[in-house]
Amino acid sequence: QKEVEQNSGPLSVPEGAIASLNCTYSDRGSQSFFWYRQYSGKSPELIMSIYSNGDKEDGRFTAQLNKASQYVSLLIRDSQPSDSATYLCAVRRNNDMRFGAGTRLTVKP
Amino acid sequence: NAGVTQTPKFQVLKTGQSMTLQCAQDMNHNSMYWYRQDPGMGLRLIYYSASEGTTDKGEVPNGYNVSRLNKREFSLRLESAAPSQTSVYFCASSSWGQGREKLFFGSGTQLSVL
Asked: Model confidence over A2-35: pLDDT tens digits?
């Protein structure tokens, strides 16, 4: 079992809709949780980080963490075509940082 | 600031050849990482280094060696390249536990092994 699991997609949503991305992890000792966005041919860039249970909002993005269920999610409100990318869930325990396989999101105008 | 610098950007090797990927960061970070990325596989951790003088295996260390030369530099070596090592390689660095945790990535190295 991979340590960080994501639905590979592709996920397609119309412009203006809410995109919902999900991630589960296996290590209960994980300390920090991240969502990265990666455009084709580019390096990943950080969108959100979350450390405690609950929701964290930043603009159109909301990250949700449930440690009991070992579940992390990312909601993108008012999705824009520029949000079309691969979204990578990442989990840190001490200095060990692991990524999921990524979910490809397409936002259609 | 240059951030994280990786060289080379592209490389073609023949099976059995060796090469070293270089990575340097100028942000005084303690932790450095090497990942590989294959289509549909996300980023897979090869090796990481929590501090100068220490290295640890990640998910896919076989066929690779690393050296944390000093705090700035972390190199990845392929001793005898195989076609299965064709991939995009990313170096990254960070310092954790400072409230604004973030991995800083290099621009990647596209490696083809024929």
From this structure: 789 998 779 999 999 999 999 999 999 999 999 9
A90's tokens: 């990442």
Spatial distance between the Cα atoms of B108 and B105, rounded to a whole number of angstroms: 8
B80: CB partners within 8 A, 6+ apart: B16, B17, B18, B63
Q: Is the pLDDT of residue B112 over 90?
A: yes
- Chain B residues with CB under 8 Å of A101 CB are 40-42
Which two tokens mark B10? Answer: 């592209």
Of the two residues B91 and A7, the one the predictor is more confident about is B91
B59 touches chain A (CB under 8 A): yes
Pairing, β B43-49 against β B104-105:
unpaired
| Secondary structure (H, E, C), chain B | CCCEEEECCEEEECCCCCEEEEEEECCCCCEEEEEEECCCCCEEEEEEECCCCCCEECCCCCCEEEEECCCCEEEEEECCCCHHHCEEEEEEEECCCCCCCCCEECCCEEEEEC
